[in-house]
Amino acid sequence: MRLAVRDDSDVGLADLIAAVGRLAARDAALVSRIAEMLHVEGQPHSEPAETKTIAIPERTTKPAAAPAPPKREPVRAEFLPSVITRARSDAPAFATPMPSLPPPTDEEREPPPPFEPLFQPSLARAMLGAALATPHPHGPADLRRMVDLVSRGQAIASLPRRRVPTLRRGVHVLVDYSSGMMPFRRDAAWLVDEISRVVGSETATVLRFHGVPSRGVADPRRKLRLAYEPPPPTVPVALITDFGIGFDDFASDHATTLEWIEFLRDVRRRSDVLLAFVPYPRRRCPRDITSLATVIEYDRGTTLTAIRSLVARHWRRG
Amino acid sequence: MPYQYQKIFTAPPTAVTTATRSRRDRRDGAVYVWNEDLELAVNIAIATERPLLVRGASGTGKSSLAASLAVAKKWRYYEEVVSSNTEARHFLWHFETLQRFSDAQAHSIRPSLHYVEPGVLWWAFDPESARRRAADSSLVAPLADPNRFPEHDDSRAVVLIDEIDKADPDVPNNLLVPLGSLEFTVTDANDAIVKAITPPVVVITTNDERELPNAFTRRCVVVRLEPPNRGTLLRIAEAHFGSDSSGLYERMADALDAIAVVKKAQGLPTPSTAEYLDAIATCRDLGVSPGEHPTWRAVERAVLLKPSMQDETRGA
Question: Do A166 and A293 have their domain in common?
């Protein structure tokens, strides 16, 4: 029995061979199921002698009795644009009534371009983990501090412990649904999904807002509009917003910088961590905003090191 | 057609019990309804010596699987429920820093090995080494084996690491080496190397509340426990409570189906097998039967519907 596998399936391939050998698995469906449980992507193939029984169409030869393509419906005149039907007899050649092209078939239709996330998918997990982790003072005993205290002859009243980063406090995500963020709607949704995967869907609260959260928020899970209430102080607050950078002059949901500053000051007073994922360069954010929130550029150029450095700066600043 | 292969582990047939069901979630491995896919997954995990990652919603029987396997094969059994505080090293060993510090203050300090507490993987890999904390028995007093089934003393063990998704994301990654190589070094015990004498079957469960790192899942045999269909649900009820002539199990399954339709439409999780069993136990003990009367409605609300504060506000 042979198995065609993807190039990157090498981790499970040895396991697959071991499992198939030890369990004496012979039939293709069983091998396929074992491969699935071991994350080996591929399809088992029978020995060449048996392939005769399996009808696999050859790509190079055209099948003699290929099914006819679906018959296209004739285009009805009333659906043609009126400008063509009203064309005058002395109209130029380009305006001469012409039958419209038939709608594209499934084969002709271009698939939508693949979604390219703004963070590198392979690094997103580490980047979000670094951004959203908060220090927790319950790590291993801090021997250096203990030695320091003992050497000074001071009594150790409580065991000093090292601070370790943790995601156990969850995250409070506020997603900007203003018209200025419309071009980034899919990126915001992707980021929310990634945050939920990293932090845990049970501990991630996601709320939406227009303009600024202080005007009110919507809870998509409970389908409710609510007055904004910040989370408990230890829960990090993560905004996905452009702070009005990409606003549209005619949009009614635009918030002023002053409104944002008031909101951020209010949250900052109550929360230990306030992050903002902004799909524009950091320098475009007003200085008053960057001094209140840790602004992370939501873009391909952002690196894990840059996020670590921004977060470390926040914790040093306190 | 069932899979044909040379089984290392054969799932025991489901025995119909006559015993009264325990009020708590079963961890004794006495009753478990296996299916072909699950049996295959266990066989693959044994054949490849890889951990078995069991995914699925709460109450689908993920945690009970490990105990059932240990009972069926008479293997030793250890379990550790993960919390948000759990660190990967906790599964290997734990050093009682605070105790040592306290003893030092009281001038009654003992050899450092005394403060080493073996974790579940150490016990599973090499129970003799864990018992004497990798030291000469003259140095430290031997520890008692936390094997949940002391009557099983086979060289192979089953380890349950329950709800790994509750831990910080680094925990699964930090377990890759000890679970992959089946050995680790105890830095607090003179760098003693602990090697698995017989590879244990490590069953890891996740409710999928948090996605696990790819590197970790790719080194596991993965199986998903789907909610049981009606026939399986009735078999599970029979296995737990014995056969039913009153039609209670059927009526409860009908009630469960009706609630599942409503919950699905609201985008909420549907009642689990564990809740179905709780509802049957309640009805049997209180002499209630699914129907229109208010007592059943109260039982249904408390055991199956479990309305959230939000639902209650809406209702009001």
Answer: yes
Helix axes A10-22, B36-48, angle to 10 degrees: 110
Domain ranges of chain B: 36-224, 230-305
Strand locations in chain B, DSSP E? 52-55, 76-81, 93-95, 116-118, 157-162, 183-186, 192-195, 201-206, 221-224
Interface of A with B (CB under 8 A): 11-12, 15, 18-19, 21-27, 29-30, 33-34, 37-39, 125, 129, 138, 140-141, 146, 156, 159, 166-168, 197-203, 221-222, 224
A190 occurs within a structural domain: yes
Closest CA to A187 of A298, A303, A307, A275: A298
DSSP secondary structure code for residue B287 in this structure: T
Q: How far is A38 from chain B (nearest CA, A)?
A: 5
Written as six digits, the tokens of A25 are: 């698995």
Judged against a pLDDT cut of 80, whether residue A44 lies above it is answered with no
Q: Is residue A291 part of a domain?
A: yes
**Nearest chain B residue (CA) to A158:** B98
Lowest model confidence (mean pLDDT) among A141-145, A152-156, A277-281, B176-180:
A152-156
CATH 3.40.50.300 fits domain B36-224: yes
| Domain co-membership, A168 together with A272 | yes
Spatial strand order of the sheet with A204-209 comes to: A224-226, A217-219, A204-209, A171-176, A237-240, A274-278, A294-297
Cβ contacts of A224 on chain B, cutoff 8 Å? 310
How many domains would you assign to chain A? 2
Last residue of some domain: A20, A36, A51?
A51
Taking the C-alpha atoms of residue A94 and residue A84, their distance in angstroms, rounded to an integer, is 10
Q: What confidence tens digit (pLDDT) does each residue in A209-242 have? A: 999 999 999 988 777 888 999 899 889 999 999 9
Model-level pTM? 0.69
Q: Is residue A74 part of a domain?
A: no
The answer to ipTM > 0.85 is: no
- Classify B50 as helix, strand or coil: coil
- Mark yes or no for CB contact A15/B3 under 8 Å: no
Any domain includes A213: yes
Contact partners, residue B316, CB within 8 Å, separation at least 6: none
Same domain, A33 and A134: no
Lowest-confidence region among B27-31, B162-166, B236-240: B27-31
| Residue A251 in tokens | 């949009």
Residue of chain A whose alpha carbon sits nearest to that of B9: A23
Tell me, yes or no, whether A296 and A204 share the same domain: yes
Q: Nearest CB to B40: which of A33, A168, A222?
A: A33
Of A23, A197, A199, the CB nearest to B47: A23
Inter-chain residue contact A166 with B37, CB threshold 8 Å: no
Q: State the smallest CA–CA distance between residue A296 and chain B in angstroms.
A: 21
Distance CA B96, CA B93 (A): 10
Could you tell me the residue range of the domain that residue A160 belongs to?
Answer: 121-317
Residues of A in contact with B6 (CB under 8 A): 22-24
